[in-house]
Specification:
The chain has 215 residues and is mostly helical. The chain is built from 8 helices and no strands. 31% of the residues are buried.
Length: 215
Amino acid sequence: MNVMLNSLPFLMQGLLVTLRVSGIVVAAALVLGVLFGVGLSFGPRWVAWPLRIYSDLIRGLPLLVLIFCVYYMLPLTGLNVTSFWAAVAALAAFQSAHVAEVTRGAVQSIPPGQHEAGKSIGLTFSQRMIYVVFPQALRRFLPPWINTVVSTVQGSALVSLVGIVDLMLAIQQVIGRTFKPMPMYILGALIYFVINYALSLMSRMLEARFAYVRE
C-alpha cells in the first residue's frame, strides 16, 4: 500500500500525458472521421475510392504496427517529429478510419426522402448536412463513437513503447525501482477502469439524451 501511495504523484504526471494524448487524438479523429465519412457517403468516385482504401487499410492494421510504422518511417521522409507527435499521428489515423465508418453508417441510415425534402426547399448540400442529416444521424452516431473514445484511451497505453512517459510507462518505471509489480499493475488497472467507466457513464447519459426519438 505504501508503494502505491508514494508513487501516486509520479503516476499522476503519466496520467496527464495519457489524457493529453487521448484528448488530442479524439478531437483530431472526430474532425477527420466526420469529413472522411461524408466523403465516403456522398463524394464522387475520385474522393470516395481513396478514402475507402485508406479506411480499409488502416483498420486492417494492428495499432501497434501502425505506431511503429509512423514512428520509424516519418524520419525517412525528412519530417523530424518527436515521438509524442508520431504516436499521436498514428493513433489519430487509426481512430479517424473507425470514426469515418461510424459516420458513414450514421448518415447513410437517414432515408433518401430527407435529402429530397431538403432539395425541394432549396437547401444546398452543406445546409442539408447541417440542418437535416446530421441532427438525425447524431442519434445513431453517438453510441459507437463513445466506444472509439474508450478504445483511444486503451490504445494510448501503447505509446509507452516509443518512449513516451504516459501512465503505463510510469508504472513500469516505478516497478523497475521497487520490484513490486502486482500492486502497481493493480493501481494502473484501477486508474484505467475509472477513466473508461466514467466515459461509459457519459455514453449512457448521451444515449439517453440523443439516441432515441421521444414521442
